[in-house]
Automatic annotation (TrEMBL):
GO terms of molecular function: GTP binding; GTPase activity; metal ion binding; translation elongation factor activity
InterPro entries per the UniProt record, alphabetical: EF-Tu_GTPase, EFTu-like_2, EFTU_2, G_TR_CS, P-loop_NTPase, T_Tr_GTP-bd_dom, Transl_B-barrel_sf, Transl_elong_EF1A/Init_IF2_C
Keywords per UniProt: Cytoplasm, Elongation factor, GTP-binding, Hydrolase, Magnesium, Metal-binding, Nucleotide-binding, Protein biosynthesis
Region Disordered: start-end pairs: 325-376
SUPFAM superfamilies: EF-Tu/eEF-1alpha/eIF2-gamma C-terminal domain, P-loop containing nucleoside triphosphate hydrolases, Translation proteins
Protein's UniProt name: Elongation factor Tu
Role, per record: This protein promotes the GTP-dependent binding of aminoacyl-tRNA to the A-site of ribosomes during protein biosynthesis.
Length: 376
């Protein structure tokens, strides 16, 4: 747990700024825990963490109740399709009034219901992190109760181990005498030590070999989908790779700058936009771990898009990134509520592959949103 809030600025401000990874085990599971920023100033950093989650523990201060960023965290979890949330109601040792605690719990459940999580059934576990760390037996047990609730409430996700290897790069480190290590969560597939890999960068690709694998300071021979790992790359300098790029099986993906997307724009009541936007609007797009500026083009006859609208749009990114038909993206506009999400009809957000950077004259392939199909 030493890596959580361990940076000097985090200690000085008393808040989480960067995401941190820790591991622990229960009798039935092994958890790779991602500690995400809760403070509104660092909501952008949370997006990377949330995009990796199979489940989430929402920490709410009992004396303060849900804060404005609490709603943003829940909305972001919905946008990136975190399947289950449970709640750690913290600092309950500071609350003597049972009725006030029940009111805070009711407010949390209402908030979860508002964003299509099963708030009425969601476990809310009363804890005190400080008292547990001080060795208070009652609150030590409350943390055990929280982990038990995680085992029961968060489903074991299916892993796409049969698909080609893909790992979005979250961070990069240079290790003196050994080389460059990239870290991230394996999105799909498997990889073994000694196998060739390809870095898809912002405009080109770089072939290399995975000469080492490590997860929580343990050396591995193989890693699979769902693992949070570090990959040691042969012959790659630190400045040749950066966050937002992806590590893939050679030849399995290509970078693109142009795409089509089916988008639902969150309304003001849903925590989204207050104003319309027009063709030429240039927001930021969060695609896996990358943060890319892009230009939006609206269909002929559509002059503007209002909050609450469903629309198909053309997107042109300033830098090429690896895209696939049917993949999802987020446009938080700096805050997660200024974004896009799956709409209530089940339609999704889909990239439509168009002319790749490496072959501008090749024909396009197409996909519809939601259930992806191709056509000539």
């Amino acid at each position: 747990m030493d890596s959580i809030d361990n940076a000097p600025e985090e200690k000085a401000r008393g808040v989480t700024i960067a995401i941190a990874h820790v591991e622990y085990e229960t009798e039935t599971r092994h958890y790779a825990h991602v500690d995400c920023p809760g403070h509104a100033d660092y909501i952008k950093n949370m997006i990377t963490g949330a995009a990796q989650m199979d489940g989430a523990v929402l920490v709410v201060s009992a004396p303060d109740g849900p804060m404005p960023q609490t709603r943003e965290h829940i909305l972001l979890a919905r946008q990136v399709e975190v399947p289950r949330i449970l709640v750690a109601l913290n600092k309950v040792d500071m609350m003597d009034d049972e009725e006030l605690l029940e009111l805070v719990e009711l407010e949390i459940r209402d908030l979860l219901n508002r964003y299509d999580f099963p708030g009425d059934d969601t476990p809310i576990v009363r804890v005190s992190g400080l008292k547990a760390l001080e060795g208070d037996p009652e609150y030590e047990q409350s943390v055990i109760n929280l982990v038990d609730a995680m085992d029961e409430w968060i489903p074991i996700p299916p892993r796409a181990t049969e698909l080609p290897f893909l790992m979005p790069i979250e961070d990069v480190f240079g290790i003196k005498g050994r080389g460059t290590v990239v870290t991230g969560r394996v999105e799909r597939g498997t990889i073994k030590v000694g196998e060739p890999v390809e870095i898809i960068r912002f405009g080109d690709t770089r072939a290399t070999v995975a000469t080492g694998l490590e997860m929580f300071h343990k050396q591995l021979d193989e890693t699979v989908a769902g693992d949070a790992v570090g990959v040691l790359l042969r012959g790659v300098d630190r400045d040749e790779v950066e966050r937002g790029q992806v590590l893939v099986k050679p030849g399995s993906m290509r970078p693109y700058t142009k795409a089509k997307a089916e988008v639902y724009v969150l309304s003001r009541d849903e925590g989204g936009r207050h104003t319309p936007f027009f063709s030429g609007y240039k927001p930021q797009f969060y695609i896996r771990t990358s943060d890319i500026t892009g230009s939006i083009g609206l269909p002929e006859g559509v002059e503007m898009v209002m909050p609450g609208d469903n629309v198909q749009m053309d997107i042109e990114l300033m830098s090429p990134v690896p895209l696939e038909s049917g993949m999802r993206f987020r446009h938080p506009g700096g805050r997660p509520h200024r974004g896009v999400r799956r709409d209530n009809r089940g339609d999704g957000l889909a990239w439509q592959e168009r002319t790749p950077i490496s072959d501008r004259s090749s024909p396009c392939s197409a996909a519809t949103a939601g259930n992806v199909t191709t056509r000539p």
